[in-house]
Specification:
The protein has about 200 residues and is of the alpha+beta class. It has helices at about 100-105, 140-150, 175-185; strands spanning about 25-35, 40-45, 65, 75-80, 90-95, 115-120, 130-135, 160-165, 190-195. The chain is globular and about 45 Å long.
């Protein structure tokens, strides 16, 4: 997530049965949503795995390397959904000139296929108390982590989130986060601010 090396890999424009080298699975764009003026929500649906292929798995907080056919560079986007929501995977992609982000926010269509690979060691750990801090689209991995935190049974661990966004329109997942705090008032406090 921080300073990680991304391998550029050429993915053939014609999808084959096996994902390209370095990728773990194929997924199809299932739904697209404009989350804010600068951020597009992309919901991917995992394709059925090939016989004998390992099961796709991830932990809240991890990212996906997204290999887009005909684009040399790899996009890395944090997973906002939970493992129990598979085969669907939710991503929030901020618009930029980086070719994968440009494709995700301007060109992607429902039905397009991409190859994906899970990465990252920024995952939820056991703790009595935790402080989560995020800015802008950086809320994506924390959204999944906080949902997982609140779903843990038999624990009284407490968490707080400090989240800042450029404007009210850029407060990604704000409604859901505030709802989560209302549903778990003894376990979660959420403070959301704007800088403009």
């Amino acid at each position: 997530l921080f300073g990680r090396a991304r391998r550029a890999i050429l993915v053939r424009s014609r999808c084959t049965a096996a994902p390209p080298t370095g990728a773990q699975a194929w997924a199809t764009v299932h739904r697209l949503q404009q989350m804010s003026p600068t951020t597009k929500g992309i919901c991917l649906r995992l394709d059925a795995p090939e016989p004998g292929a390992p099961a796709f798995a991830f932990e809240p907080g991890q990212w996906l390397d997204v290999h887009i056919p005909a684009i040399n560079e790899v996009g890395g986007y944090s997973i906002a959904s939970l493992p129990n929501e598979l085969p669907l995977l939710d991503l929030a992609v901020k618009a930029s000139a980086h070719p994968p982000a440009a494709w995700c926010t301007r060109s992607a269509k429902v039905g397009d296929r991409v190859a994906i690979q899970v990465g990252g060691k920024f995952v939820l750990r056991e703790a009595e108390a935790a402080l989560f801090v995020a800015g802008g689209v950086g809320i994506s991995p924390l959204y999944g982590m906080l949902r997982a935190w609140c779903l843990r049974a038999g624990t009284h661990a407490r968490a707080a989130l400090l989240f800042a966004a450029r404007s009210r329109a850029e407060r990604l997942f704000a409604t859901q986060l505030e709802g989560l705090a209302r549903a778990h008032p003894e376990r979660l406090r959420v403070s959301i601010h704007t800088t403009r």
